């Protein structure tokens, strides 16, 4: 066993022991408790990177099969302009635009479905059908309809995010109990007042669940759609092109950017959820 593998083993055992100590420790200071909660996944992630680096060097794995994290980092730092242009094309244009349009449209249609039993029985089964369509089949059609630029990627993202928002919002609007609705009727509340004061607040956990799911689906959909036609920029375009050129380190650099962007996007939605649904038992329990 060479030095790289020995170091990986020792580092893993030390990090594991330290994380176990942090998890079992009960800090009285809230600040220290938050820092410990952040440190545990951070140490775990750093440990994975160290083991990855050592395994690649220890077993002499060719870079075309699995580049080391140091190699990927070197490519990241030397290709910032290209990565930034790809990020703008894919995330800033396709993902955000499609995410807002798909989630917003799903929310509005859910309100209409809630008012119409006909739409509820007719549209929701279609939603389940469309959500099961393979994206590799839908993406080329959207490219044919809307062209090779970011508009076709927005259409794919809208399709992927519309029905999760629709289904979750419809389910959330029915979360309020009959007793609570009867109480609103005794106060002579209108449908709109019942919606805004009772049913919509009760539906927020379901809505944010859809928003969090869609934050990852939107990025995946945009990247996959770019495999089927795009200008010479974009994360999906770069991945497919660099794979053909055997520039695997650039592929992993794009994957790293996409992973960070998706994680940050998900985190922003989760923070918004905590701010809006501060009254929910799951949030109050997490703050205790």
User: What is the count of distinct domains?
Assistant: 2
Distance between the termini: 47 Å
CATH architecture level-2 label of the largest domain:
Orthogonal Bundle
Structural class: mainly alpha
Topology order in helix (H) and strand (E) letters: HHHHHHHHHHHH
CATH topology of the largest domain, which one? MetI-like fold
What percentage of residues falls in helices of 4 or more residues? over 70%
Alpha plus pi helix count: 12
Count of strand segments = 0
Mean pLDDT: 85
> What integer value in Å does the Rg equal?
24 Å
Low-confidence runs of at least 5 consecutive residues: none
* Sheet having the most strands: none
Query: Beta-sheet strand percentage?
Result: under 5%
Would you mind describing this structure in some detail?
The protein has helices at residues 3-24, 30-58, 69-78, 80-115, 117-131, 135-146, 150-173, 178-186, 191-226, 235-244, 248-276, 281-287. By secondary structure, it is mostly helical. It has two domains: 3-61; 78-287, MetI-like (MetI-like fold, Orthogonal Bundle). It is flat, with a radius of gyration of 24 Å. The two termini are 47 Å apart. One of its GO terms (biological process) is transmembrane transport. It is a multi-pass membrane protein. Keywords: Cell membrane, Membrane, Transmembrane, Transmembrane helix, Transport. Residues 104-276 form the ABC transmembrane type-1 domain.
């Amino acid at each position: 066993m060479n030095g790289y593998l020995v170091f990986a083993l020792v580092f893993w055992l030390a990090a594991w022991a330290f994380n176990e100590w942090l998890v079992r420790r009960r800090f009285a200071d809230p600040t220290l408790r938050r820092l410990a909660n952040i440190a545990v996944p951070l140490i775990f992630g750093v440990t994975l990177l160290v083991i990855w680096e050592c395994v690649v060097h220890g077993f002499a794995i060719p870079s075309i099969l699995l580049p080391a994290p140091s190699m990927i980092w070197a490519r990241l730092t030397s290709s910032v302009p290209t990565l930034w242009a790809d990020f703008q094309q894919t995330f800033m244009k396709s993902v955000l635009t499609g995410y807002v349009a798909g989630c917003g449209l799903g929310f509005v249609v859910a309100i209409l479905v809630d008012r119409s039993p006909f739409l509820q029985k007719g549209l929701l089964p279609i939603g389940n059908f469309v959500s099961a369509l393979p994206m590799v089949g839908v993406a080329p059609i959207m490219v044919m309809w809307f062209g090779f630029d970011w508009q076709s990627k927005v259409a794919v993202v809208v399709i992927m995010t519309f029905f999760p928002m629709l289904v979750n919002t419809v389910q959330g609007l029915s979360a309020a109990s009959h007793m609570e609705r009867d109480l609103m009727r005794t106060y002579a509340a209108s449908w709109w007042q019942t919606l805004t004061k009772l049913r919509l607040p009760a539906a927020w956990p379901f809505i944010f669940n859809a928003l969090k799911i869609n934050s990852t689906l939107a990025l995946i959909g945009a990247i996959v759609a770019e495999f089927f036609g795009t200008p010479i920029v974009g994360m999906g375009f770069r991945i497919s092109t660099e794979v053909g050129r055997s520039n695997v380190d650039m592929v992993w650099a794009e994957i790293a950017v996409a992973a960070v962007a998706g994680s940050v996007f998900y985190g922003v939605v989760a923070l918004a959820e905590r701010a809006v649904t501060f009254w929910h038992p799951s949030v109050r329990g997490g703050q205790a």
